[in-house]
Amino acid sequence: MPGSRSVGWGSFDSMVQTLEQGLARGPWLLGDRFTMADVIVGGTLRYMLRFKMMEPTPTFQAYSDRLAARPALQAGEAKNAAVMAEHGLGG
């Protein structure tokens, strides 16, 4: 069986370390420019932090806070909240 690195995945710890290193150049994954990578990775990271699937390191928390401050994310969350309220969901 091939090693995890040779087929495109590694350990959880390796993933966390790689993400920390990627965000160290920040403020976004590709530096100063917000990209689709931030939408995908940032959304996943925010989910994992919310449900305590990852440790909220200072780097991850700061990144999550920057994402939460973006007007488009705030608008999307407001729409989600309205739909949930309309259907009696949430709490």
Structure characterization notes:
This protein is mostly helical and 91 residues long. It has one domain. Helix content is 60%, strand content 0%. The protein has four helices and no strands. The protein has helices at 12-24, 36-50, 58-68, 71-86. The longest helix has 16 residues, at 71-86. It is globular, with a radius of gyration of 16 Å. It starts with 11 loop residues before the first helix and ends in a 5-residue tail after the last helix.
Which features characterize this protein?
single chain, 91 residues, mainly alpha
Write the layout of secondary structure elements.
Layout: H1 12-24, H2 36-50, H3 58-68, H4 71-86
Helix pairs in contact: 2-3
Shape: globular
Which blocks of ≥5 consecutive residues have pLDDT under 50? Answer: none
Tally of distinct domains: 1
Task: Specify the helix fraction band.
Answer: 55-70%
Structural class: mainly alpha
- Would you tell me the overall average pLDDT? 90
Give the N-to-C terminal Cα separation: 47 Å
The succession of helices and strands, N to C, reads HHHH
Instruction: Please count the helical segments.
Output: 4
Largest sheet: none
Strand fraction: under 5%
**Rg computed from alpha carbons, rounded to a whole number of angstroms:** 16 Å
Total E-strand runs:
0
